[in-house]
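Q: Please design a sequence for this.
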């Protein structure tokens, strides 16, 4: 991270005494070293044990990564950065509209059979990440399932997270994979309208579609981080954390 990025992120992290009561010795490494190491893993796609010697021990970095995720610190950091990015663009902190989409990613051998599946449409054996973004393409929430999960089924849990994390959302754009009873279910339960953006009549090849291109661009931003190109995480929630850290990296650079 640059000095400007760290100046933004530092006040948003848990205080240095957040591990009090967990036992063991107090860590001698500062939080900036920990965050730099996490972002290094996310950006370069290396194993935890392959962290260069310039960083703290891999076990220290991983323990902070897992503990921050378990207490919701990663989501809180993402939310705070997204609010700042929106305010810097002259928008309200809480978005009123957004987009949802999903992408299947191949899973490594470290992913157990219980948490992976086969996407018959994309011919991918692995997991599927479902994301919700605002109109700027900034991540609001992410859900990781087996690749066999249908979009309209997994979207129920995704939209529940979206409603919890961002109550101001009233409109969501989606592709034709989210049709059916999901639209009425979401409107009646959460008060969120889903507007389907379908392909153009006679469309051949790639065409930029209104509203949908925003969330598809976010999926491309996530894939710029090598740890997210493929799923290496044993636990689905840790892959969700990797996606959050990828967007934390992207948004913090935008703010500077």
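A: Design:
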């Amino acid at each position: 991270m640059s000095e400007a990025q760290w100046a933004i992120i530092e006040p948003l992290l848990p205080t240095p005494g957040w591990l009090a009561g967990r036992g063991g010795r107090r860590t001698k490494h500062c939080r900036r070293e920990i965050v730099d190491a996490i972002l290094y893993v996310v950006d370069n796609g290396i194993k935890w044990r392959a962290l260069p010697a310039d960083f703290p021990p891999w076990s220290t970095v991983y323990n902070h990564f897992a503990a921050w995720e378990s207490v919701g610190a990663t989501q809180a950091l993402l939310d705070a950065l997204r609010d700042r990015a929106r305010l810097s663009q002259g928008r309200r902190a809480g978005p009123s509209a957004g987009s949802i989409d999903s992408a299947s990613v191949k899973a490594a051998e470290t992913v157990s059979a219980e948490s992976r599946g086969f996407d018959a449409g994309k011919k991918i054996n692995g997991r599927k990440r479902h994301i919700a973004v605002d109109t700027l393409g900034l991540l609001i929430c992410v859900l990781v399932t087996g690749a066999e999960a249908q979009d309209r089924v997994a979207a129920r849990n995704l939209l529940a997270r979206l409603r919890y994390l961002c109550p101001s959302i009233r409109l969501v754009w989606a592709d034709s994979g989210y049709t059916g009873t999901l639209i009425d279910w979401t409107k009646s339960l959460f008060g969120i309208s889903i507007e389907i953006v379908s392909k153009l009549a006679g469309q051949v090849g790639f065409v930029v579609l209104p509203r949908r291109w925003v969330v598809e661009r976010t999926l491309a931003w996530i894939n710029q981080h090598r740890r997210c190109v493929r799923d290496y995480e044993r636990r689905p929630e840790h892959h969700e954390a990797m996606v959050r850290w990828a967007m934390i990296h992207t948004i913090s650079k935008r703010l500077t």
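Q: Thanks. Anything notable?
A: The two ends are 11 Å apart (CA to CA). Residues 236-255 form the longest helix (20 residues).
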